[in-house]
Amino acid sequence: MPVRQIHIFDDDPAAALITQRGLQMLLGDRFSVVIASTPNTAWLACASGNVDLLIIDPSPHSSGVLALVRAVHAFRPYIPMLVLTAYDTPGLRAKMRDLGVERYVAKPIELRELLPIVVSTLATERPAASGGMSLATLSLSSSTGD
Question: DSSP 3-state assignment of 68?
Answer without folding.
Answer: helix
